[in-house]
Amino acid sequence: xxxxxxxxxxxxxxxxxxxxxxIPKVLFTDPGFRRITADAKILYGLMLTAAVx
Length: 53
Hints:
By secondary structure, this protein is mostly helical. The chain is 36% helix and 0% strand. It is built from 2 helices and no strands. It is elongated.
């Protein structure tokens, strides 16, 4: 049993399970973007991440 306050560490590819992409919420909530497919919105989010990161 781990001691109180002990932290678990993730090594190598284990940390990748907590990777996420930020996609603007407005793409999914604003009626102006209703006609755009979810795939296109996700692709935009991925490209936006690549441009910023």
